Amino acid sequence: MTIENLANLVAPELEKVNEKIIEASGNHVELIPTVAKYIISGGGKRVRPMFTLASAKMCGYQGNRHVNLAAAVEFMHTATLLHDDVVDESDKRRGRDTANNIWGNKPSVLVGDYLLGKAFQMMVADGSLEVLRILSDAAAHIAEGEVMQLSTTNNIETTLQQYIEVIDAKTASLFAAACEVGGAIVEDEAKSAALKEFGTNFGIAFQIIDDALDYSANPQKFGKTIGDDFREGKVTLPVIYAYERGGADDKNFWRNIIEEGAEIRESELNAAHKKIHDTGSFAATIEFAKNYGDKACKALNKFPDSEIKTAFFEIVDFCINRDF
Amino acid sequence: MTIENLANLVAPELEKVNEKIIEASGNHVELIPTVAKYIISGGGKRVRPMFTLASAKMCGYQGNRHVNLAAAVEFMHTATLLHDDVVDESDKRRGRDTANNIWGNKPSVLVGDYLLGKAFQMMVADGSLEVLRILSDAAAHIAEGEVMQLSTTNNIETTLQQYIEVIDAKTASLFAAACEVGGAIVEDEAKSAALKEFGTNFGIAFQIIDDALDYSANPQKFGKTIGDDFREGKVTLPVIYAYERGGADDKNFWRNIIEEGAEIRESELNAAHKKIHDTGSFAATIEFAKNYGDKACKALNKFPDSEIKTAFFEIVDFCINRDF
Q1: Number of folded domains in chain A?
Q2: In sequence order, what are the residues at sequence separation of 6 or more whose Cβ sits closer than 8 angstroms to the Cβ of residue B87?
Q3: Is residue A48 within a helix (H) or strand (E), and if so which, with residue range?
Q4: Separation between Cα atoms, residue B194 and residue B103, nearest integer Å
Q5: Nearest-angstrom CA–CA distance, B311 and B209
Q6: How many CB atoms lie within 10 A of CB A174?
């Protein structure tokens, strides 16, 4: 797992982030720490806070502010997970019951709101208006992307451009902000911009790959429940390509499934899978993600070679060039 | 309507707040302005932004910052309404269909998130860390109160202290913040503290009265659907008093209804109403709210007499001393 090199390089700080997360999710209202700890400890790899820590270190930052800000970034991420699960009506996340499945929608919505408020309190305690600008922009942008996604769901005419706009907002903007913050705390505009560029392109690549895995030939390997997006009528890049490349029968098939909400059985899922692979749409999706991975790496040209920079390259590589 | 005197005193600024609200809820993702405008134009009286404007003016503030901050306060309020309606599974708010009833839970959760993010963007644009502190504290506190309310719902042993803690957090903290911001922009700590004290006590009184109206003798007059809280098993002050003052039979009645979720028909609602009035619980609730109203007025002692101060007194009076 090549993500581990970056994790090792920021291990002491990441430990402090975890302590900060536990401390900041404490509350005398028991349901808050119960739900917060359940989701925060749900097997996520802390990629976003790791990016904040590593970005700050790559900019030569020496203090402790990146620890608190990395925790704030993770709180923002956790809040979106809680709300996403309510919106998607998901029962499972990473193989475990979702919080809304255990406690219902109410605590998921409200504890999500609490964590978002807490994230802003942590940023205010940090005291940088530039950091607050970056992360409040991200908060609004994430929600904008999620709302946009509602209108592309069940819409087979969704364009590549609309798809990219959605994932840029809902996923890439938080990766971008997590990285940009690392440059903002050393007040270096050029480095901030480069890190934002890295985070944006990494985030887009990451989401494209995540969407591709829904149609992977080898789903068990990635711990995905295959076909979830398909069942929810989400129009992701493999579907956009397969619809574009398919003949009249294929187009009817996709329209029926995605728009008309035709009942999805094993046979439909297998047919979708076959069409996506036979038309080369799966391979084209991975190829498209690679472009963003390349752009992410190029954005780091501004930084001298370092162990952290190498570890960032490895994560991009790990994300994209795997055995699908 | 004595609320109108305050509205008239800040009318030009309130007009600008409304323009700012329209502008800031614009977005190329159509569902965002559609849902936002629906709920923002839903017949609310803009009491919170009015309080921000009036507080700033009472502190002698001359600029334009209060307009943007009042709009941010209204966005925070709107976000909580959208999420509340999802949590309460409400079909109606102020006699109209709720947003979640029309568009479903998804846009309500996500547009709420968007408006909260937007509110923080507006505060960042204002540029005062003190204002950001006040309003991020309020955001976390509101959500904390809402989660706390989940654990008092269906719990007939809820104490007066727990009830006050819930309404202080879920309702009063935003009134308090809306007022405190008015002092913060003139950087006057003593005035900020007095305005916060006013907002807190007004907010508590306001919520107690709102809860009392659920058992009013004259519900049509207040546009309330009588018995909503009762049906949801919410333990509000009239119920706390009636349970405390009731005999063994009364206690059984309340426990059955509130905790066991006994089916609530017209006869149960009438019985609850009768018990609350016969035990003097309704009158005691109003009396209790009056104490907070008095404290709110006293907090304004620090300010010289002015038209705005008089209008604030009138609103407190209007809120509490009506013909129930």
Answers
A1: 1
A2: A105, A106, A109, A110, B146
A3: helix A47-58
A4: 41
A5: 19
A6: 24
Inspect the interface and report whether the beta carbons of A124 and B140 lie closer than 8 Å.
no
What CA–CA distance (Å, rounded) separates A16 from A49?
Answer: 11
Taking residue B251's Cβ as centre, other Cβ atoms within 10 Å add up to 15
Give residues with Cβ within 8 angstroms of A73, minimum separation 6: A48, A49, A52, A119, A135, A174, A177, A178, A181
* Cα–Cα distance measured from residue A219 to residue A237, given in angstroms and rounded to the nearest whole number: 17
Residues of A in contact with B107 (CB under 8 A): 147, 150
Residues of A whose CB is below 8 A from B83 = 109-110, 113
Q: What is the pLDDT of residues B237-268, one digit of tens each?
A: 999 999 999 999 999 999 999 987 667 788 88
Task: Scan for tokens 């997360």, then name that residue.
Answer: A21
* Distance of alpha carbon B37 from alpha carbon B96, whole angstroms: 14
**pTM for the complete prediction?**
0.95
Give the C-alpha separation, A77 to B187, whole Å.
Answer: 34
d(CA B148, CA B140): 12
Secondary structure E strands in chain A: 92-93, 96-97
State which amino acid sits at residue A286: I
Cα–Cα distance for residue pair B24/B22, rounded to 1 Å: 6
The CA distances from residue A247 to A90, A241, A254, B121, in Å, are 33, 12, 11, 47
Q: Which CATH number characterizes residue A42's domain? A: 1.10.600.10
What is the identity of the amino acid at A35?
A: V
Beta strand spans in chain B (E): 92-93, 96-97
Q: With contact defined as beta carbons under 8 Å apart, do B94 and B40 qualify?
A: no
List Cα–Cα distances, B244 to A113, A280, B230, B237, B280, in angstroms.
34, 72, 17, 10, 11
CB B268 within 8 A of CB B257: yes
Q: Tell whether the torsion through CA atoms of A309, A313, A314 and A319 is positive or negative.
A: positive
Please state the φ and ψ torsions of residue B97, each to the nearest 5 degrees.
-60, 140
End-to-end CA distance of chain A: 15
A150 touches chain B (CB under 8 A): yes
**Amino acid, res. A96:** R
**Residue showing tokens 């925790």:** A71
Structure tokens at A35: 């739900």
At residue B219, the pLDDT reads 63
CB contact (8 A) between residue A136 and residue B124? yes
Q: Which domain holds residue B272?
A: 3-320
Q: What is the DSSP letter of B97?
A: E
Q: How confident is the model at residue B220 (pLDDT cuts 50, 70, 90)?
A: low
* Mutate: best of B108, B124, B142, partner A, most A CBs <10 A: B124
CB within 8 Å: A83 and B133 = no
Query: How many whole angstroms separate alpha carbon A81 and alpha carbon A87?
Result: 10
pLDDT exceeds 60 at position A149: yes
Banded model confidence at residue B225, pLDDT cuts 50, 70, 90: low
Q: Is B105 on the interface with A (CB under 8 A)?
A: yes
